[in-house]
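Key result, reporting period 2: structure in, sequence out.
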C-alpha cells in the first residue's frame, strides 16, 4: 500500500474514533428531548473528550502510523488538534451556562454534584496544559519538568472528563452505550500503558554502549554507539531516534536527535551529533565511554527516496546532522547523482564537519556552498543568510527538477520554503524536518 493510501486509511480511522461514539449516543433508547443548544453543547463535550483520548495514540510513536507523514508532522497535528479539543471542551460549559443560567447558582455545602467537580478539574487541567505548552520558553520551564507535568495534566484532564460524563450520565442509560465508552476508556488506558510500560520494556532489552565521544566544531559532540547484545536496527539517511542517556527507558523524558552516521553500515553502530544549546545538551560531552544508553528508533520521513537529477540539501546550524547522514550514505553506496549542500553558519570556525565535507567531495558529486552570517576578513563566499537569490546563483535550471531537503532554525526554514515557492518549486519536491515537539 502506498504512503498516500495509508495516509487516507489512518485519517478515516481517526475520524471514526471521534464520530462513531458520538453518533452511537443518538441510537437506541433516548432520554427526553432537550433544546438545540443544550444538545449541541453536549455534542461538543463528547467530541472534545474523544479527541483528548486519542492524543495518547498520536504520541505513542507507532512507526506504521507515523511513517507516511513523519513524526514532526504528527506532533504538529497533535499540537493543533489539542487546541481544537480544548476549545470544544471550554465552549461546552459556556453554552450550557448561557442556556441554563440556573446552573451558575452557588450550591449549598455538600450539594455540589461530583460530576461538576470533575468537569472543573478537567477544564482547569486542560487550560494549564495549554498555557504551559505555549509559554514554556517564556516561563523558562525546563523541558524535562514540562514533559512530566504535561503528561500528568493530560491524564488528569481525560480522567476528569470521563468521570464528569459518567457522573452526568444523561446519554449513558443504555448498557451498550456505557460499554462502548468503557471500551474507549480501556483503549486510551492501554495506549498509556503501552507507551510507559510495554515499549520501554522492549527498549530496555536492546541497549547501546557509547564507544566514542568525539568533539566537533561548532560546540558539537558526536556519540558513537554500538548495540549491546543485539544487532541494532537499520535506518534510512535523514531519520532520527529518541535518546535516553541517563536513566532507563522508563524515564518519562527522552530527546529526539537525527542520526549523523551513514545508513549503509552493516555493523549496527549509530552516530548522533548533538550541539550544545544550553539545556540537556550541555552535558553530552561529559558522557563517559562505555556508558549504557537507549535508542528508540528509527523515526521520520525526512529521507532520500524520490528519483531526482540532483539532491539539494539546505542546512542551518545543527540541521547539518541529517544532511551528513545523507551525504555519507550516498558516498558509501556510490551514488553519482549531483548533491549541492547550502550550509548556513555563524562563522568559519563554527562549521561542524567542515573538514570531512571537503574530503567527501572526492567520493561523490558534492558541491558545498557555505553561507556565513559573520564572515572573516577577506571572505569571498556567500554572506548573510540562505535566500532565493543564493539558490539561483548555485543551482541549475529548471529548479523544479531537483529534490530539496531543508533542516535548521524555524525562521530559516520558513524563509527557504517561501523562496522555493518564488522559484516555482512545488511542495512535493521539498521536504522539511522540524524537531519542535513541544
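The corresponding designed sequence is given below.
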Amino acid at each position: 500500500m502506498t504512503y498516500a493510501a495509508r495516509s487516507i486509511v489512518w485519517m478515516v480511522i481517526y475520524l471514526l474514533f471521534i464520530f462513531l461514539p458520538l453518533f452511537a449516543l443518538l441510537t437506541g433508547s433516548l432520554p427526553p428531548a432537550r433544546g438545540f443548544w443544550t444538545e449541541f453543547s453536549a455534542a461538543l463535550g463528547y467530541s472534545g473528550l474523544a479527541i483528548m483520548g486519542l492524543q495518547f495514540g498520536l504520541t505513542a510513536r507507532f512507526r506504521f502510523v507515523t511513517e507516511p507523514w513523519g513524526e514532526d508532522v504528527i506532533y504538529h497535528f497533535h499540537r493543533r488538534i489539542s487546541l481544537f479539543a480544548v476549545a470544544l471542551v471550554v465552549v461546552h460549559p459556556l453554552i450550557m451556562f448561557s442556556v441554563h443560567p440556573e446552573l451558575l447558582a452557588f450550591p449549598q455545602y455538600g450539594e455540589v454534584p461530583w460530576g461538576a467537580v470533575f468537569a472543573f478539574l478537567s477544564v482547569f487541567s486542560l487550560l494549564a496544559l495549554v498555557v504551559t505548552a505555549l509559554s514554556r520558553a517564556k516561563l523558562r520551564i525546563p523541558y524535562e519538568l514540562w514533559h512530566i507535568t504535561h503528561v500528568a495534566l493530560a491524564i488528569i484532564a481525560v480522567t476528569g472528563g470521563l468521570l464528569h460524563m459518567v457522573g452526568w450520565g444523561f446519554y449513558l442509560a443504555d448498557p451498550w452505550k456505557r460499554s462502548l465508552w468503557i471500551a474507549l476508556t480501556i483503549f486510551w488506558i492501554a495506549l498509556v500503558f503501552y507507551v510507559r510500560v510495554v515499549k520501554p520494556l522492549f527498549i530496555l532489552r536492546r541497549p547501546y554502549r557509547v564507544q566514542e565521544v568525539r568533539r566537533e566544531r561548532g560546540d558539537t559532540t558526536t556519540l558513537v554507539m554500538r548495540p549491546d547484545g543485539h544487532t541494532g536496527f537499520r535506518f534510512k539517511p535523514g531519520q532520527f531516534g529518541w535518546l535516553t542517556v541517563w536513566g532507563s527507558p522508563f524515564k518519562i523524558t527522552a530527546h529526539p536527535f537525527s542520526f549523523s552516521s551513514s545508513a549503509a553500515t552493516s555493523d549496527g553502530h549509530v552516530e548522533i551529533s548533538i550541539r550544545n544549546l544550553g539545556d540537556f545538551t550541555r552535558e553530552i560531552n561529559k558522557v563517559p565511554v562505555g556508558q549504557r544508553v537507549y535508542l528508540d528508533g528509527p523515526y521520520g520521513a525526512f529521507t532520500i527516496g524520490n528519483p531526482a537529477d540532483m539532491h539539494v540539501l539546505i542546512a542551518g546550524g545543527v540541521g547539518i546532522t541529517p544532511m551528513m547522514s545523507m551525504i555519507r550514505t550516498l558516498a558509501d553506496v556510490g551514488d553519482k547523482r549531483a548533491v549541492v549542500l547550502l550550509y548556513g553558519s555563524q562563522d568559519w570556525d563554527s562549521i561542524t564537519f567542515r573538514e570531512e565535507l571537503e574530503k567527501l567531495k572526492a567520493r561523490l558529486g558534492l558541491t558545498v556552498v557555505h553561507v556565513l552570517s559573520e564572515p572573516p576578513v577577506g571572505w569571498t563566499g556567500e554572506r548573510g543568510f540562505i535566500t532565493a537569490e543564493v539558490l539561483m546563483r548555485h543551482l541549475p535550471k529548471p529548479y523544479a527538477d531537483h529534490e530539496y531537503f531543508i533542516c535548521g532554525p524555524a525562521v530559516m526554514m520558513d524563509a527557504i520554503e517561501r523562496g522555493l515557492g518564488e522559484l516555482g518549486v512545488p511542495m512535493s519536491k521539498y521536504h522539511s524536518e522540524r524537531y519542535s515537539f513541544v
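The chain is about 45% helix and 15% strand. The chain has a mean pLDDT of 85. This case is discussed further under Risks and Mitigation.
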